[in-house]
Amino acid sequence: MQYILRRGNSLHYQRAYPRQIQSLLGRAMYQRLQLNTKASDADIRAARDGLNQLFEQRVVAAKNSLHEEGGDPSAQAVMLNILHAQTRDQALTLNDLWQDYCQHKRLKGRDRQIADADWMRFIRLAGNLAANDDSDTNRRLNAALQAQYLTRQQHVKPSTAKRELTRVIAALKFGAQQHNLYWRIDALKAPKTDTHSKATLKPPIIRLIHAAIGNDTSSTDVDALLLLALTTGISPAEIARMRSNDLLLNATTPHLWVRNAKDQRYRIAPILVHKEFLHHSLPAATNLSKMSKGYVSRMCSQRLQAITGSDSASISLALNTFRAATADVDLTNQDIEQLYKELCARLTIS
């Protein structure tokens, strides 16, 4: 394609200036495209056409400057620099905005790799568009964000899909602010899901788990996390927030106080089964719950898979099972005896 050169896997624009203005502009206009050799002809042609327009503007300005009588060469150079600054943004692409954002945030190492992976998922849907105020561009950005959010939920949790787009949206907003682009980024919308439609553990599997609790002395901390998820609906993150005065295991009806993300007590969780086991293993489980989320999840999954023989078993299934069984129970009820009876009636506990 005319004016497009290939250098390895990257594409570059190169076009020579007329001889009479090379003293002002140099020999040629050269710019690397934010595209690789796998880009479509339409994307390459669009990038080239935009740079051709910029090239022509520079040529016209330089020729007009040279034709002025008594022109000051230094003033001419300043004028061309101003023209370049005014027209530079016309050649900006989304990838340019991303590079600016990463530099601004000083993203490096592993953080940069993860952020780049999230950005490339988005750019494969949106395309490396020119960064301008065109309404079609704004609509395409929102459509790509929404499409990625929905399609990623087929592979990861909705919260993860949303988190993956956090930096993408931040980069778009930062670029819009820096270059006076009046983009409106819409809020991400996901279809509501019914708790009962989520995968849960069947009663025979639940009984198998109860029978295996505590039989492996090297996994008592993991067993405690699984037991609490299955019979109280408490997640490892909630266990990590507990304090010593939240663990009332010697009460008439042993129970735990559960704290929310603001560290406020918001519900009571009666202990239904394996009370003696929890009394001894809960401190170790609390220490485990404070480790990284990925590590805790992996340890729980490995233990469940060893017990059930299912490769898909995870602590999320245990939590889903509790939530599905107690969907119509008021878990914030502070009448411990009543709550204990209701949970015993709805859960498979042996």
Arithmetic mean of pLDDT: 85
Rounded to the nearest angstrom, the distance between the terminal CA atoms is 72 Å
What is the strand tally? 6
Please state roughly what percent of the residues sit in beta strands, choosing from under 5%, 5-15%, 15-25%, 25-35%, 35-45% or over 45%: 5-15%
Biggest pleated sheet = 3 strands, antiparallel
**What global shape is seen?**
elongated
> How helix-rich are the residues, as a percent range?
55-70%
How many DSSP helices? 15
Q: Which class best fits the helix and strand makeup?
A: mainly alpha
Tell me about this structure:
This protein has 350 residues and is mainly alpha-helical. It has helices spanning 22-25, 41-67, 73-88, 94-105, 109-126, 135-152, 158-164, 166-178, 203-212, 220-232, 236-240, 275-289, 293-308, 315-325, 336-346; strands at residues 4-7, 10-16, 28-36, 247-248, 255-259, 265-270. A hairpin with a 6-residue loop joins strand 4 (247-248) and strand 5 (255-259). Helix 2 (41-67) runs antiparallel to helix 3 and helix 10 (220-232) packs across helix 13 (293-308).
